[in-house]
Design brief:
The chain has 116 residues and is mainly beta. 9% of the residues lie in helices and 25% in strands. The protein is globular and about 35 Å long. The relative contact order is 0.17.
Length: 116
């Protein structure tokens, strides 16, 4: 007998080309090194409405002076003043702010928290 699908029913083995399988990596564009200003860092309108789970640690681009700021998602995605926002609790002062995670042009304003 075979191994894996080749050991399974004939239909499975035939569907998988006799059991031959080669795994591949498919980049998703959400790596910690993704640049939020490149195409890989940009998301469509549907993705901008995606819920980021409460408790998620991330870095948020505040502005040129403050740069990337560590934060924790503490509130669900919801509409505020015509924008979709999450509540973020910032590491530097413990304040909680309603923040849109995308720039006006659709570029991502957040990234996964980088290890210290």
């Amino acid at each position: 007998g075979g191994v894996g699908a080749a050991a399974g029913p004939p239909a499975v083995s035939a569907a998988l080309g006799g059991g031959a399988f080669t795994p591949i990596d498919i980049p998703l564009g959400d790596s910690a090194d993704a640049d939020p200003d490149t195409a890989g860092g940009r998301l469509g309108a549907e993705a901008q409405l995606s819920q980021i789970p409460e408790g998620t640690r991330l870095e948020y681009w505040w502005n040129e002076e403050w740069g990337w700021c560590g934060a924790t998602v503490v509130g669900p995605l919801r509409p505020v003043d015509g924008k979709m926002v999450h509540a973020l609790c910032f590491d530097f002062d413990g304040s909680t702010e309603d923040c849109c995670l995308y720039f006006e042009d659709g570029g991502r304003r957040w990234r996964p928290l980088r290890p210290a």
